[in-house]
Amino acid sequence: MGRLAHQTELIHDKLKRKSPSRRTGGRSSENIVIVRGALKRLVSGVDPTWPIAMFITLHIGRHRSVIPDILGALTPNPVSMARHGQPFARGIYVAPPDRHLIVSRGKTLLSDGPKENYARPAIDPMFRSAAKVYGSAVVAVLLSGYLSDGMNGLLEVHQAGGYTIVQDPNDAEVPEIPLNAIRKVEPSFVLPLVEIPEAIAWCLKEGKRADDALAVP
Predict the structure, then answer these.
(1) Angle of helix 176-184 relative to helix 151-159, nearest 10 degrees?
(2) Which of 18, 59, 68, 217 has the most CB atoms within 10 Å of its CB?
(3) Long-range contacts made by residues 73-76, C-beta under 8 angstroms, separation at least 24?
(4) How many CB atoms lie within 10 A of CB 84?
(5) CA–CA dist 112, 95 (Å, integer)
(6) pLDDT tens digits for 135-190?
(7) CB 66 within 8 A of CB 97
């Protein structure tokens, strides 16, 4: 408990010191969060009162997924498998097996397009689509994992003026994705997993031109 309190103080200090530049544009009435990575601890740390839709992609391939059931036990927010053409609202939407999750204006789309970074679903299509539609109103979060999926999509979010958050490689169980992402783009924040929910909250507050859309992976 003492360590958690210390880490909370640290992130407050960091967020006070660092106010990343942010371009304007990409207004929307929705609040969106798109997530990828070490999800159980992150989702359990997200405030259920935040007015956000959260999108999640994991490298599950064609395998049957029980991720919505697992995450649903950690949060009072509704958790479901994303469906093609589904309008989204507050809640958590998970990429289904063997389909890329595409964030469109106010709804989710699913694609059976080619694998990216040897994966379908892959992270890059989710980040890329969110950046294209919501621009500077995106917050992209990239966590522990193998290879480099998400790296190019994170760059597109950055170029669109959105926030980018990468798990500290020293804190990641598998540091390869965070390391590759940091080499590709200078993230808004590089933080231990336990501090990321607080950073998301800061981004929501900072971007609270309440009609903004925010996306995290």
Answers:
(1) 40
(2) 217
(3) 74/40, 74/43, 74/44, 75/43, 75/44, 75/46, 75/48, 76/48
(4) 13
(5) 12
(6) 888 889 999 999 999 999 999 999 999 999 999 999 998 999 999 999 999 999 99
(7) no
- Tokens standing for 67? 């991720």
Task: Give the residues across from 163 on adjacent strands.
Answer: 139
Q: What's the mean pLDDT when you consider all of the chain? A: 82
Pick the CATH number of 29-206 from 3.90.1150.10, 2.70.70.10, 3.40.50.180, 3.30.565.10: 3.40.50.180
The pLDDT of residue 33: 59
Q: What is the value of pTM for the model shown?
A: 0.81
Mean pLDDT value across residues 92-119: 96
Host H or E run for residue 56: strand 53-56
Q: Order the strands of the 163-167 sheet from edge to edge.
A: 79-81, 91-94, 53-56, 32-36, 139-142, 163-167, 189-191
Residue 49: phi and psi, rounded to 5, are -85, -10
The first and second tokens of residue 36, run together, are: 């990828």
Compute the Cα dihedral for 154, 155, 160, 166 and give only its sign. Answer: positive
Answer whether 217's CB lies under 8 Å from 142's CB.
yes
Tell me: pLDDT of 26 over 60: no
Task: Let me know: does 126 contact 100? Beta carbons within 8 Å.
Answer: yes
Burial of 16 (0-12, 13-18, 19+ CB in 10 A): exposed
